[in-house]
Design brief:
The structure holds 2 protein chains of 2 kinds. Helices cover 67% and strands 0% of the residues of chain A. By secondary structure, chain A is an all-alpha fold. Chain A has one domain (25-304, 354-379). In chain A, helix 2 crosses helix 7. Chain A starts with a helix and ends with a helix. The model of chain A is unreliable at 74-89, 256-261, 307-340, 344-352 and 387-419 (pLDDT under 50). By secondary structure, chain B is an alpha/beta fold. Chain B has 2 domains: 3-225, 3-Layer(aba) Sandwich (Rossmann fold); 231-297, Alpha-Beta Plaits (2-Layer Sandwich), CATH 3.30.70.100. Chain B contains 12 helices and 15 strands. Chain B has helices at 43-50, 72-78, 94-104, 109-122, 138-149, 168-183, 195-199, 219-226, 240-252, 275-287, 301-309, 312-317; strands spanning 3-14, 17-23, 26-28, 32-36, 58-63, 66-67, 79-82, 156-160, 187-192, 204-209, 212-217, 231-236, 256-262, 266-271, 292-297. In chain B, helix 3 (94-104) packs across helix 4 and helix 8 packs across helix 11. The two termini of chain B are 36 Å apart. Classes of the chains: A mainly alpha, B alpha/beta. Chain A binds chain B through residues 20-21, 24-25, 27-28, 31-32, 35-36, 39, 133, 135-138, 140-147, 384-385, 404-407, 409, 412, 415-416, and chain B through 8-9, 11, 22, 48, 51-60, 67, 69-70, 72-73, 76-77, 79, 81, 83, 85-92, 96, 100-101, 103-106, 145, 148.
Chain lengths: 419, 324
């Protein structure tokens, strides 16, 4: 990296100088912040407590699922509704291998808990980054150095995220427990961690931006957590409301498939980390039916072939004789088929499964995009000379007719007369 | 002598109110230049504009030949700025604090090590190297803040009320430090409303009030321009009759405008004229057989100058320490 920087510096002095200031900004600020953050026992005590909590949570899920399996197993009888044998004979009530169910449960639980932690911690670490400098009156000291404000802001973000990343990475060994139970592949875990990093970056930038925008840390904290709530609960509620309102207007057709045309716009939920989590949970669902898949299906509009047997999950929105059968039967235009053949095709469709990665990559990209945009805006807000003005503007203003001339003092009287 | 700082009709407007209005300054390299004025006069705004923290509404300023408008980055690398209300990163050690600013200015590791040692020696904090900034006294923090402004060896120092909140001893130390910096060839622009402190230090001053520059130049030159008479105090040895005789003598002297009695056998009198008048009053008093134990200017020149140039009521309204 340093050779690259040096090479650029040779090619163009100004650009090289700017890049140099950018890098020294990142390194100076992040080293300083990390020194403060990692000093003493606090950071490591927090890490330990966090891991203990995660471990306890995973263990709780394990115990709960095992108990549930035992009770459900006794009431409905251990077995598979499709007659497929499971090695060891241990299954969940709806015919899933118990072990895979536990793996899936722990994966989903840990993903939920870590999403929640990142959603809260990443903005919490950055929401004071700039407003605290303003309050402690140290920002002027920083701004009068030749640091680039973008480098400074990125340094702040980087140092705050380093600790969040440390928390995320420290949970990897615990999360890999799911491999013991099966049902979740390494690629699922990689997906989950990629998403958590994107989420941490996006939410960290949200905190940073609000910190630069709002002068007081207290206000910034409140605003940040309102934003977190809106993103996590508000978007889902809004989306649901839209969906329901849309459905009401089309129930007259009686066809569920018409819902697709009136779906609420999917981007509303891109910044909701829990929906992306559901997508990943759905991908690992050991079951023929999973509510997460159904929700994602209602969001993305992709058809989802839930379980064909209503006894497993009564009261689901996708009745077996609804669009599902329409789809299966209408696939090759043949309307009337013997029921047995249709069931066989149904099983095929189920084993094909729900399409993977339909939602979360968009969500991760949205968080990264948001992060980049807000970081750039925060740098603009910190810079004293360019408060949210485009870089080209001041020069144009200087030459403009009605605006104050910056360069020539002789023009002053005319300016004052004009204003 | 080259010009280190020059402002041309420097103006800052906040909405409709003018914080700084057309200030023109010219500061030679190697000077200690005092910016004098009551609270709210526009001193801090002027310094902030020079430090590139506030863009001027009109006019421009040049530091080391660089315009604060067009080349703020170049200006930042030649100035060291110490704000009036400064914060310190309290969760850092003293050496880390300076190391951080060294990194900000892109100094190499070797240069940073050297610089930290030198600066801590200069501001007399060498034995506090490993201490936390929050454990330092106010005076020490002030010196550390001054050290931070020197990290990159700037040619121009902009110090906003550097002595506020310091005890007398720390003030004396600060004054010594600034003299030492001047001897190192730095140009120092210092703002204060504590005048005696500036008078002993500054080679030139600018008096500013309500955002306008009232006078600037060497203290003696300003005094001459405004043709001010000085106020002197004399302490008389002897009893009440002796004091009355002295008072009568002074009042009858041609160079004395008025005489007032002060407690402790002290007579305060305003002169019509400058040092020559004072010498003539002293000579005539001694000839008249009046026993004087002291004979000296009552207030500092600068204080006197300041009170006469600016509106006295404006100063009363804003007593020292009740700063904005």
């Amino acid at each position: 990296m340093s050779t690259l920087v040096a090479g650029l510096a040779r090619r163009s002095g100004r650009v090289g100088h700017a890049i140099g200031r950018f890098w020294s900004g990142i390194s100076a600020v992040s080293i300083k912040e990390l020194r403060g953050r990692m000093r003493g026992r606090r950071a490591f005590v927090v890490l330990t407590i966090y891991l203990l909590l995660l471990g306890l949570f995973a263990f709780g899920i394990y115990v709960y699922l095992k108990q549930q399996a035992a009770t459900v197993g006794f009431s409905t009888g251990i077995g598979d509704d499709f007659g497929r044998p499971f090695p060891g004979g241990q299954t969940l009530g709806n015919g899933t291998a118990l072990s895979a169910g536990i793996g899936h449960g722990i994966f989903g639980g840990l993903l939920f808990l870590e999403t929640l932690l990142v959603l809260v911690l990443a903005p919490a670490f950055t929401t004071g980054a700039i407003s605290l400098e303003r309050e402690k009156q140290t920002l002027d000291l920083l701004v009068t150095t030749p640091l680039s404000t973008l480098g400074m802001v990125i340094g702040k973000l980087f140092s705050a995220l380093t600790y969040v990343f440390l928390l995320i990475l420290a949970s990897v060994p615990l999360a890999s427990l799911v491999f013991v139970f099966g049902g979740v592949g390494p690629e699922d875990l990689v997906r989950a961690y990629v998403f958590l990093f994107a989420l941490a970056f996006g939410m960290g930038a949200v905190g940073l931006f609000i910190s630069a925008l709002v002068r007081r840390t207290q206000t910034a904290t409140v605003v940040t957590f309102v934003v977190v709530l809106v993103l996590s609960i508000g978007t889902a509620a809004g989306h649901q409301f839209w969906q329901v309102a849309g459905r009401q207007s089309t129930t007259s057709s009686g066809l569920l498939l018409t819902q697709r045309t009136n779906r609420a716009p999917e981007p509303v939920l891109w910044l909701n980390p829990f929906v992306a989590g559901l997508d990943m949970v759905c991908a690992t669902a050991p079951d023929t039916y999973h509510q997460s898949c159904e929700y994602i299906s209602s969001v993305t509009g992709r058809p989802y072939f839930g379980s064909p047997t209503p006894t497993i999950q009564p009261g689901i929105d996708f009745p077996a004789d609804g669009p599902l059968r329409d789809f299966v039967e209408g696939e090759d235009g043949a309307g009337a088929r013997p029921p047995l053949e249709a069931d066989a095709r149904l099983t095929q469709a189920i084993s094909f499964g729900f399409p993977r990665d339909t939602f979360w990559p968009k969500s991760a990209a949205a968080f990264v995009g948001l992060g980049v945009a807000l970081t750039l805006l925060a740098a603009q807000l910190v810079s004293p000379s360019r408060r949210l003005r485009l870089p080209g503007r001041p020069r144009i203003r200087g030459r403009g007719r009605g605006s104050p001339p910056p360069d020539n003092a002789n023009d002053l009287p005319s300016t004052e007369a004009a204003s | 002598m080259t010009t280190a700082v020059r402002t041309e009709r420097l103006t800052k407007r906040y909405g409709r109110s003018l914080a700084v209005s057309g200030v023109e300054l010219e500061i030679e390299a190697g000077e200690i230049f005092g910016l004098v004025g009551p609270n709210g006069a526009g001193k801090t705004t002027t310094l902030k504009m020079l430090a590139t923290l506030l863009p001027p509404s009109a006019g421009d300023a040049e530091i080391g030949g660089h315009s604060v408008r067009r080349e703020p980055d170049a200006v930042r690398s030649v100035i060291g700025y110490m704000p009036d209300t400064f914060g310190v990163y309290d969760d850092m050690r003293v050496w880390e604090y300076l190391d951080f600013f060294g990194r900000c200015y892109g100094l190499s590791a070797a240069r940073r090590r050297q610089m930290i040692g030198d600066l801590l020696e200069l501001v007399d904090l060498a034995d506090k190297r490993g201490a936390y900034v929050q454990d330092l006294s106010r005076g020490m923090q002030q010196r550390l803040c001054l050290a931070h402004a020197l990290v990159h060896d700037p040619q121009v120092l902009l110090l906003d009320e550097p002595a506020s909140g310091l005890d007398p001893r720390a003030r004396v130390e600060l004054r010594e430090l600034l003299r030492e910096l001047r001897s190192l060839g730095k140009t120092i622009l210092i703002s204060s409303h504590i005048l005696p402190e500036l008078e002993e230090l500054c080679t030139s001053v600018a008096i500013i009030d309500h955002g306008r520059l009232l006078a600037s130049g060497r203290v003696e030159d300003i005094a001459e321009r405004f043709r001010l008479g000085a106020v002197y105090r004399a302490t008389v040895l002897g009893d009440e009759s002796e004091l009355a005789r002295a008072e009568q003598h002074l009042a009858s002297h041609a160079d004395v405008a008025s005489v007032v009695r002060r407690p402790g056998s002290v007579l305060e009198f305003a002169l019509r004229g400058d040092v020559d008048a004072a010498a003539s009053v002293l000579t005539s008093s001694v000839r008249a057989g009046i026993k004087l134990t002291s004979f000296a200017p009552a207030a500092s020149d600068l204080e006197e100058l300041f009170l006469q140039i600016t509106d006295i009521r404006a100063l009363d309204a804003t007593q020292p320490e009740a700063r904005t």
